[in-house]
């Protein structure tokens, strides 16, 4: 049986917490047959006595837990809660949920069902069919929530997900939450931690699923969300968005230096003794189809290309993929050979593209040079994909562990 711990931070929720505990333990949990449900309230010593109420209720409900501490903000409350759920309660999955009934308890079972059906990350979404934001919300509030979300979707390039700021989510511990460095989440004192956590969970998860959530209006009191929280949320999204593109920019820069080295080395080596020495071993081939092997410039081109490959491998390894740096002599040799194999792919792409263009439009310098330009996006995407999938392995294939 899977153990699922709902981590519920509370600050001055005395008006809500009793009913919340009752609804979960008496109405909702008994309906969930395929998981053992626990509730962990993380109360930051609420002056209104929320923690005391939970403590009393714990006598009645065995699966109710309380973690208290100093108020350090929402992110830290969750981080403490997650750690406790994983280390002390042995959770298989944890949920994020608010105590103020904005996440109606009846939606818990839908989240658990998605998990039981194989999702390792479940997002309670207000912006898919069946989900909603409170009808009472003013148009301006609805617009801020909707466009804020849209903005984050664009910045993070997550068009397939619809709610990136929701506070109602479920994550599997093994492979998703336990892979995250919780102590170094961005903006842990704020609501913005949610975007960083979401981003990392999506990366780790093999199957992310959105489940409709009808976000309810707040019962009493004021929301703790404010413009400051909103700005920091956008900030986190932008930093995460750029961080990923940064790798691509570095990759492009290294590729460009490789290109320069290739071009310069070709001119430097053609006409040198090295190139003509290599070529001279093959003078017998002159006049045959393999005659190019006897050409010093062909050897110069080969040397130049290999120098560019060495340059690209080295700088991608120590710069573009710094965090995944390949170390150790034998590893480096093996990866370098694989890298050369990948480079062969670009040769094939250019061979086919330029070959086809020459056949279609005639063999002129213009067409050949255009051919290089047309191949470029293909070569770049091909290389970038190869590096991320096979060389430095920053992307994982869904069917591979
Ligand atoms: N322990 C602890 N410490 N709990 C806190 C703190 C804190 O510093 N700040 C807030 N909480 C608790 C509240 O008691 C409530 O249970 C929950 O965290 C959410 O706080 P709200 O103040 O109700 O947040 P909200 O309604 O504005 O924001 C909700 O919706 C947003 C999306 O519109 C949250 O679910 C956000 O996570 C979500 O992004
Ligand atoms: Mn709320």
TrEMBL record:
Q: Which domain of life is it from?
A: Bacteria
- Keyword check for Oxidoreductase: no
- One record GO biological process: polysaccharide biosynthetic process
- Gene3D superfamilies to which the protein is assigned, alphabetical: Spore Coat Polysaccharide Biosynthesis Protein SpsA, Chain A
Q: Where are the transmembrane segments?
A: 253-278, 298-319, 339-361, 367-391
The Glycosyltransferase 2-like domain is annotated at 6-174
Keyword Transferase recorded: yes
The compartments listed are: Membrane
Q: Which GO terms describe its molecular function?
A: dolichyl-phosphate beta-D-mannosyltransferase activity
Q: Which InterPro entries does this chain map to? A: DPM1-like, Glyco_trans_2-like, GtrA_DPMS_TM, Nucleotide-diphossugar_trans
Q: Provide the Gene Ontology terms for cellular component.
A: membrane
Give the GtrA/DPMS transmembrane domain ranges: 298-392
Provide the alphabetized UniProt keywords: Glycosyltransferase, Membrane, Transferase, Transmembrane, Transmembrane helix
Similarity comment text for this entry:
Belongs to the glycosyltransferase 2 family.
Q: What's this protein's name?
A: Glycosyltransferase 2-like domain-containing protein
């Amino acid at each position: 049986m899977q153990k699922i711990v709902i981590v519920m931070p509370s600050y001055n929720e005395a008006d809500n917490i009793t009913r919340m505990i009752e609804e979960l333990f008496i109405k909702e949990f008994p309906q969930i047959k395929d998981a053992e449900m626990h509730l962990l309230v993380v109360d930051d010593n609420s002056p209104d006595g929320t923690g005391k109420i939970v403590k009393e209720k714990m006598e009645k409900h065995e699966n109710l837990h309380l973690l208290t501490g100093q108020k350090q903000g929402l992110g830290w409350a969750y981080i403490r809660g997650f750690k406790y759920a994983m280390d002390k309660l042995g959770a298989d999955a944890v949920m994020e949920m608010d105590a103020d009934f904005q996440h109606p308890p009846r939606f818990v079972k839908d989240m658990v069902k998605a998990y039981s059906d194989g999702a390792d990350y479940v997002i309670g979404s207000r912006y898919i069919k069946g989900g909603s934001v409170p009808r009472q919300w003013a148009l301006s509030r609805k617009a801020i929530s909707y466009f804020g979300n849209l903005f984050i979707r664009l910045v993070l390039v997550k068009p397939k997900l619809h709610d990136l700021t929701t506070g109602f989510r479920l994550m599997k511990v093994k492979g998703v939450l336990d892979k995250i460095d919780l102590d170094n989440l961005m903006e842990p004192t704020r609501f913005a931690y949610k975007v960083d956590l979401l981003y990392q969970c999506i990366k780790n998860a093999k199957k992310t699923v959105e489940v409709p959530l009808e976000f309810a209006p707040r019962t009493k009191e004021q929301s703790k969300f404010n413009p400051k929280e909103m700005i920091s949320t956008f900030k986190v999204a932008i930093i995460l968005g750029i961080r990923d593109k940064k790798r691509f920019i570095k990759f492009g820069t290294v590729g460009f230096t490789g290109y320069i080295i290739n071009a310069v080395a070709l001119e430097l080596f053609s006409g040198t003794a090295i190139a003509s020495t290599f070529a001279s071993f093959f003078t017998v081939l002159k006049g045959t189809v393999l005659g190019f092997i006897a050409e010093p410039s062909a050897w110069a081109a080969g040397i130049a290309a290999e120098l560019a490959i060495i340059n690209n491998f080295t700088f991608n390894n120590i710069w573009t993929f710094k965090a995944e740096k390949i170390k150790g002599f034998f590893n480096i040799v093996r990866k370098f050979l694989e890298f050369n194999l990948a480079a062969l792919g670009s040769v094939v792409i250019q061979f086919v593209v330029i070959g086809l263009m020459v056949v279609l439009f005639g063999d002129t310098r213009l067409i050949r040079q255009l051919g290089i330009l047309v191949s470029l996006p293909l070569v770049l995407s091909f290389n970038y994909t190869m590096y991320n999938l096979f060389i430095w392995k920053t992307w994982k294939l869904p069917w591979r562990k």
